[in-house]
Amino acid sequence: MTVNSLKNHPHLAGEICVTLNWQEIKELKSVISECEDDKDMQQMASEVLSEATEGEKKFQVLLLKSLLPKDDADERDCILEVRAGTGGEEASLFAMDIFKMYEKYSVKKGWKYEVLEVAESDLKGYKEAIASISGTSVYRKLKFESGIHRVQRVPVTEKAGRVHTSAVSVAILPQADQLDVKLRNEDLRIDTYRSGGSGGQHANTTNSAVRITHMPSGITVSIQDQRSQHMNKAKALKILCAKLYEIERLSNQSSRSKLRLKQIGSGDRSERIRTYNFPQGRVTDHRVGITTHSIDDVLQGDDLDAFIDALLLREEMDAIALFSST
Amino acid sequence: MRLSFIRPISCCAVSSPTTLVKPQTPLFLRPPTFKTTLTDLKKWHLWAKSLASSVGSAFLNLDNGPDSNQLLRELNWLIEDAIGTPKSILEQPHKSRNGNSTVLIRTCLDELYVLWKQRVEERRPFQYVVGCEHWRDLVLSVQEGVLIPRPETELIVDLVDEAIKENEELRDGLWGDLGTGSGALAIGIARILGSKGRVIATDLSPVATAVASYNVQRYDLEEKVHVKQGSWFEPLRDNEGEFVGLVSNPPYIPSKDIGGLQAEVGRHEPRLALDGGASGMNDLIHLCDGAVSMLKPGGFFAFETNGDEQSKFLVHYIETKKQGSFSKVKMVSDFAGIQRFITGFRGR
Known about the structure:
The complex is a heterodimer of chains A (326) and B (348).
Chain A: H1 3-7, H2 10-34, H3 39-67, E1 78-84, H4 88-109, E2 112-120, E3 126-134, H5 138-142, E4 147-153, E5 164-174, E6 188-191, E7 210-214, E8 219-223, H6 229-252, H7 255-264, E9 272-277, E10 282-285, E11 290-292, H8 295-299, H9 304-325
Parallel strand pairs in A: 4-9
Antiparallel strand pairs in A: 1-3, 1-5, 2-3, 4-5, 6-7, 7-8, 9-10, 10-11
Chain B: E1 34-37, H1 38-53, H2 58-63, H3 68-82, E2 102-105, H4 109-121, H5 126-130, E3 132-135, E4 138-141, H6 154-166, E5 174-178, H7 184-190, E6 198-203, H8 206-218, E7 225-229, E8 243-248, H9 263-266, H10 282-294, E9 295-304, H11 308-321, E10 326-333, E11 339-346
Parallel strand pairs in B: 5-6, 5-8, 6-7, 8-9
Antiparallel strand pairs in B: 1-2, 3-4, 9-11, 10-11
C-alpha cells in the first residue's frame, strides 16, 4: 500500500501505526530478556517499552474513535432558543440567566455569540430569546443542552420567602443554509406585519419587522429587533433554515443513531435535564447524575464544562458500547 | 441649535452647484469624549422613557406615526449609538458599579436631552437624530436635506442581483442611480458588481451629493461609484447608451398629498425628494422616456413607484408609448404586498 492510497484510508493508517508499534514492543521485550547482564541497557529498554505501550493504547483509542459513527452536525454552528416555561415572571428571569450563561460560556470558548431576538417580560426577564452561536465544534459541545432546565429558588417577586420551582426550555439547533434544506423561494411568503398605510416615501418608520412563512410546513419566524429590514429578514431566514434542518434530521435519522440519542436523553425539549437549586447552591444533571456545588460558577459559564465534558464522554462510551456489541 | 435643521425647501435648488456642504458625522462614529456619571445617565434614561411612554398611540392615530413601543425601541438604539461602551450599562445590577462611576458618551448629556425632545416633541425623524440609517447591511449617514432611505427600497438591490445572476454581462457594466439621495442604491449595487462594474449616482441636491460622497467614501467605493450633481440624466450625457442598468427611487407622491404626510416626513424630509407633481409621476415618466436612449440593448431598469396605481399606469405607458423599446416589463411587490416597483429590459 502506498502512502498516497493511505491518505484515502486514514483508519488503515492508524492500523499500520499500531502494527509498527507492536513490532517495536516485541523487539524491546526481547532486548530486555536478552540483556539480563546489562542493567543499564535493560533499564533503558523498559523505559522505552512503557512509553511504547502507552502510545499503543492511545493509538487504539484514537483508532476506535475514528471508527465510531459521527453526528455530521457536530462541526456546525448552532441556534440557541431559550423559552420561559411554567413559573411566570420567575421563569422569564431565569430564562434570562440561562441565556446569559451561554453567552458567557461562548465568550470564554472564543465563539461568536449574536443575539437575534429577545422578547422581554414585564420585569425585564426574557419570555423568549434566540441567539446564533458560531465557532469551532459549537454544536458538538452544546447539543446536550437541549431540554428542560429547572430552577428552585426564592423569586424576587416572592414576599413570603418561599422557594418556587420554575422551568425554562432550551433548544440547540444546528445551523443550516438554504442549500442544506433545499429552500425554494416560491415556498416562502415574506411580509411586514405592519398596519396599512401607503408605505414607501409616505412613511418614516424604524419598524422593519419581517415575518417569513414557510408554506409547505407552516413554520413562521418573525424578527423585529434588527435595525434594517434586510437584517431582520436574514436572521429570520437563518432561524427558519435551522428549524427545517432539525425536522429533516429527526425524520432521517437511522435507527442506530436514534438509539445513541436515547441513551443520553431524547434530545426532546420536554425532557427535564438539569436542576439549578439556589438554596443549596447546587446544579444537578439528571442524565449523567453529576452534581456541582458551585452554582454561581456554572451560571457565569465557568463550570458548565463539568457537565458538557461528562456528557460528551458518556456519548463516546455509549457509542463504543454500541459499536462493540454489533 | 433648536430648529436650525429645518431648512426652507428652496435652498436645495439648482442655482449653486459649487456649494460646499460638509456632511455631518453620525453619532455612533463620533469619539466618546464626553463624560457623565451613571446616575445622571440613568436619570436621563428615565426621563426619556417617560416622555416616550406619554405618547401612547396618539401619533399613530394622528398620522400613522410611531407609538410608545416604537419610540422605546428607538431610545435603546440611541443609547447604543451614544454610549462609548454599549454593554447595556443602564441595565446592569447596582452592585457592580456605583452611581458616581464615569460613563463615556459621544455627545454631551444636555445634547441627549435636546435630541430626545426633538424626536418626540418635534417629531424629528430618529434617523436624523442619530445621523444614520441602517439599510440592508449598511449603516448610511443621513441628515436634514437628504431623504432617509426606506426599507422597501432595499428590494431594488435584490432585483438587480437577480438580473445580474441571469445575465452576467451586467455585472461588469455601467450602472446609473438617479436621484441617489444618501447614495444607498448606488452603494448597495456597487457591492454586488464585478471588478469592472461602475455606478454613476446623480442628485440635484448639493446636500445629497455631499452625503452620498461621504457614504461612498466610508465604504471605500470611490473607485466604483461616482457621484455627480445635476438633474436626472443631465450629468450623464457623456455616457448615453452605455448603461447596462438604471435604478431610481424618484419623488412620487402627488403634490396634493404632501400636506397630509406623517409629521416625520412632511415636516422634516426634503420636499424635493418626495413631491412628484400633480400625478406624482412627473419624474417617473421622465425616467422611462430617458431610459430608452441611456440603456444599452439588454440593459435592465428598476424604478420605485407610489404603488399599485402608478405601477399599472407606467407599465401601460411603456407598453403603448414606448412600444418595442422594452421587453419583460413587469410590476414587483414589496413585502407589504403593494406593487411597488416596475422592472424591465431595453429591447435588443
